[in-house]
Every structure is written in structure tokens, then in C-alpha cells.
Design a protein that fits this description.
Two copies of one chain form a homodimer. The first copy, chain A, is an alpha/beta fold. Helices cover 40% and strands 20% of the residues of chain A. In chain A, the strands form four sheets. A seven-stranded parallel β-sheet of chain A has the order 5-2-1-9-10-13-14, sandwiched between helices. A three-stranded antiparallel β-sheet of chain A has the order 7-6-8. The first copy, chain A, has a two-stranded antiparallel sheet with strand order 3-4.
């Protein structure tokens, strides 16, 4: 099963990282790259936090807390306790070990490295062989517009636990952001596939696709374009994707995820519980691959990654 | 035992903090202030660290690790371990809880607060009622000149464990530094006493005295000026003071400490093991008070503080 070019996985945090981990057992590190959303990066307590990159790096390094899906296993929280005693801001969970990542990233960024280089340095230090490209080296700030007013993404997501009703999104800086040199170089050659991980379409994947003309560029450079639906049986396995769809007046279905990406994707992997939506999705001109998409165990992750590759090869032959 | 005005204690880190803790049990919080050296403040990993202020605050808050004399008790070191895995700089010991202080201080400084205000905020958050004034709100950087070339103070002190041979000191920024508004206000009234804690004369006390005309100002504003010798039996209880004196060609004796401060102090508290130096010191025109100055227990600290007050009252009557 050889093919020319690489697979590019677009990923947000937890769900994307699970698929990427599976992919790392199915393809070797030269066969694929990951483009990570940085739209929910933010500066907290003076530290540059890149939640999606961190989740990817920690997951690939085997350091992630698998129960939570984010942050480090065997984490301690003594910094946060002491910060509370000092009257500091403690709504964002910063573990003692995790803090090293943010402090070191911030230090390297201040010394003049761009986020691409810093991500390489930190991945490499933790022995991660998979290539992770930040979507851009420029700052992009996601604002979630809600019935209670606009909220910085992490305020919406962590502090307010996704409770406010979503009315839309704004991505400050996205209009000026450019893809990184690494992404441009990737798109300069014909590649095997673009694979959209089961991440939040609105706040994880759209920011990536909306950088400059990246959506069109990926469409041209990649022979096959496919997505894995993050919506399974009407709900999101992790995060507020389904809630957001409902609040935006969109049915929270795999079909609507497919419609969201229509014009870009050739195929979508959906869960077997959504098998009855196949005809509806295929009527959009999008092929479907129905399987078990919930990734609880490492075997689930490897299995889904292998099926994505199988589907890529199938779509490439069409 | 009432007197007009306050006592101002000039302090570096561990030794000074011990005397200040004793003083806090002898005087009430309206009767004295502490002026802390900030010449060994530095920015590490992007964080503003104020070692002497931290030691004072932690000691007064009852949080200090008494065995080490600095840092927090029940500290954990998981941040540092994770930073090591990332290839970061780990020569400076940053505990997980201690980090909260540096992160919050840095955040408040970046938001526009000066170090005076930040010190008040952080002291107050930890329930410290004693007033601590940084010597200045401007950056001062201590360089230790050694036979191997100049070293930033913390490189000399922590990284290189005071091993290099000292040839001199430089204090970058000291020529432009001004005393804080609080110190100027303090010196605007007649005060009870200036008490130089048993801190390092070269790198803890001199930076304070050499700010602007602070030495002369204290001399005028304070009725009585006295010091406690940090040199006991030819050695320093903590830190490199004795080693520095020897390397600078000065005998490491209480007499030389007295000589170092001559022209400013009226009296010096020396240890009973140095009792034979009384005549020599008094020949400099400096009165002596001989007692046990090693502060191991809380009773030692209270005892020495009480004796300093007794000596202040004695000197005031002369």
C-alpha cells in the first residue's frame, strides 16, 4: 500500500490527537504531517498557551492524561493552589508539569523563534517524531459570540464551561494570517490526502481552512480530501460541537458536518450509529465510509486510522 | 519603651529575614518597615524573580522552608523536572508553588504596577502585615566580577555555587535608580532607627545604601544607626560574605564589617565569639553590643530582635 505524497491531518485538540496517535501507528513519520489549529492559543498570565499543539504533543509523546484527554498524566497542581493563595487567576487549569511547556515556549518565542520552530524544538525534546505544523506563525484569536456577549475562546470553553449560547465566531488576526512556510512547502507538491480529523468544525478546523486561500490550496495539492465526523449519534464525543450546531440552528448530525465541508471533501467517515444518513450524505456528492468512530482504546485509534487510509486509497481510485 | 518614629531594617535574604521575623514579634507592624535589596532580582525564563523580597515574604507568612531558609516548605519540583525534559534551563531552583509568586508578580508588573505596589499586593494576599519596601522600583542588576570574568549575580550565587573568586561588583542601573516613593516618604520624617540586618554587606546592603543619596538620607532621618554583623567567628552563617571578604583582601571579621559601615553606624551587634574585637571596633567610634547572634530557633530570632531594640534605646540615650 504505497502512494505518492503525504497525508495532511488537520487537527484540533483531543479528538484530533486521538486519530493522529492512531495514524502514527499506521503510517511512518515521513508519510504524514499534522496541521494544528492555533486559533485557541492565548496568552494567560503572560504565558503563551497553545492548547491544541500541547494536546497533540503530549498525546504523541505518550504523556497525555488519557482519562481527561488533555494535560499530563501524573500531573500535580501545586502552582495553581499557590496562585489561588496569591489571589491570581485560576480558572485555567495549569498543572505544574504542563507549566514547563508554556514557560519554555514563551521564552523561545520571546527570543525570536517563530511558533513553527518552537513546536519543532519542543516536540523533538519529548521524542515526538511526527511533524506538527502550527496553522500559522501569526496570532489568531478566536472569539465566541454568545447571547451574553463576545467571549475569548478559553473564557467560553474553560471558564464558562461552554454554557453560553453561541451565536457566531470571530477570528481576530485571521485575515492577516499566512500559512507557515512548512505548510506552503507541503502544498508546493502533489500530496496524497487531506484528512480532517474529528475535531470541532467551527473553532478547530475552520480557522485552519480560512487562513489565506489554504482551503483552495489544500484542495488542489491533495489528491483526496476526506473528513471524519466529530458528531456521532447527534452528539459530540468531546467538546461543544453538537451544542454549537444546535444553537446555530443546524441539526447536529454527521450529514450537516458533511454539508459544512462540501465543496472541499470527497468523502466522510461516519459512525455506524449514523448509518441511516449515508444516502443523504451521498446526495451531496460526498462518499461515505461507515465504521465505529469512537476511539476509546489504542486499538480503536489504530483501527480508525487504518480505515481512513483504506478510504483514502478507495477515493484515490475513483 | 516607646519612641517616636519607626525602625527601618535594611535586609537581604535569609539572614535578614530571620531578624525581621524576630522583629515582627517584638515590635508591632506600625513600628517598623523593611527595605529589601532588589539588586539580585532578575528575569529568568521570562519571569521576574525577586529573591530577597520572596524570602522576606515567605518567612513572615510562615511559609518558608526553615531548613533551607529560602523557598517554600512542602514544595514540589515537578515543573523543574518537566522543564528538564524539554531541554530548558534548570540551574535556578523554581518550585511549583514558588512559581506562582514569580508568574503573578510578572503579570502584575506587565500590567503597569510598580514593584512597590506588587510587593504590597502579594504580601497582603499572604497575610503579611509587615511593610516591605523594595529599595527601588527601577531595575538594578548585580554583576559579580570574578577571576573567570563577570557573572550575573544568580549565575555566581546559584549556578556556580559562589565558587569563582570575587574581584569586585558592579550594579547596572544603580546610578539611575531612585528610592521608592515609600522610602522617600519614610525619610521625610524623623525616624527611630536604621538597622542593618546581618546580610551580605557587598551584595545585599551596599546596593540599598548606594541608591541616590540614600545612605546620607537615612543617616539624617534616623536618630540611631546600627548593624548586626553577618560575620561570626570569621565565617558567614549563610552565603558568601566571608569568602568575598577574604578574596577582596579584607579580613573576614566583625571589625571589618563595622569598618565597612563606619561613618554611617553608631553601633554594631556582634557575636559573643567575637567579644575580643570590642576594643578594636570601639576604636572606630562604633559602640558594640555583644550577644548570641546565631538565629537557629524562633526564640533566637526574637531574642536578637529584642536586643537590637535595647541597643537602639541605649544608643538613643547617648
Amino acid at each position: 500500500m504505497t502512494s505518492d505524497g503525504k497525508v495532511c491531518v488537520l487537527s484540533g485538540g483531543v479528538g484530533g490527537a486521538k486519530l493522529v496517535l492512531g495514524m502514527s501507528r499506521v503510517l511512518n513519520s515521513e508519510e504524514f504531517v499534522v496541521v494544528a489549529n492555533t486559533g485557541d492559543d492565548f496568552v494567560h498570565l503572560g504565558l503563551h498557551v497553545s492548547p491544541d499543539i500541547d494536546t497533540l504533543v503530549y498525546t504523541l509523546a505518550g504523556l497525555v492524561d488519557e482519562e481527561r484527554g488533555w494535560g499530563l498524566k501524573d500531573e500535580t497542581w501545586n502552582f495553581l493552589g499557590a496562585l489561588k493563595d496569591l489571589g491570581g487567576e485560576t480558572w485555567f487549569n495549569l498543572g505544574d508539569k504542563d507549566l514547563a511547556m508554556h514557560v519554555e515556549r514563551t521564552k523561545q518565542l520571546r527570543s525570536g523563534c517563530n511558533l513553527s520552530q518552537v513546536t519543532k524544538n519542543l516536540s523533538s525534546a519529548l521524542g515526538v517524531k511526527i511533524t506538527i505544523f502550527p496553522m500559522t506563525d501569526s496570532p489568531v484569536e478566536t472569539t465566541v459570540e454568545t447571547d451574553g456577549g463576545p467571549l475569548a475562546f478559553q473564557h467560553y470553553f474553560v471558564r464558562d464551561k461552554c454554557n453560553p449560547k453561541v451565536t457566531g465566531f470571530k477570528f481576530k488576526g485571521l485575515d492577516k494570517a499566512r500559512p507557515t512556510d512548512d505548510i506552503n512547502k507541503f502544498n508546493g507538491e502533489k500530496q496524497r490526502a487531506l484528512l480532517i480529523a474529528p475535531s470541532n468544525p467551527f473553532v478547530s478546523i475552520d480557522p485552519i481552512l480560512h487562513i489565506s486561500n489554504l482551503k483552495e490550496t489544500f484542495k488542489e495539492s491533495c489528491r483526496v480530501k476526506l473528513a471524519v465526523s466529530p458528531i456521532v449519534g447527534g452528539i459530540a464525543i468531546k467538546g461543544p460541537a453538537a451544542k454549537m450546531m444546535t444553537e446555530l440552528g443546524i441539526p447536529s448530525t454527521a450529514t450537516e458536518v458533511a454539508r459544512h465541508y462540501s465543496g472541499l471533501i470527497d468523502g466522510i467517515v461516519i459512525d455506524e450509529v449514523d448509518g441511516e444518513q449515508v444516502r443523504q450524505i451521498e446526495s451531496l456528492g460526498i462518499k461515505t465510509f461507515v465504521t465505529k468512530t469512537v476511539m476509546s482504546t489504542i486499538d480503536d485509534k489504530i483501527g480508525l486510522a487504518a480505515e481512513c487510509i483504506e478510504f483514502i486509497d478507495y477515493l484515490a481510485r475513483k
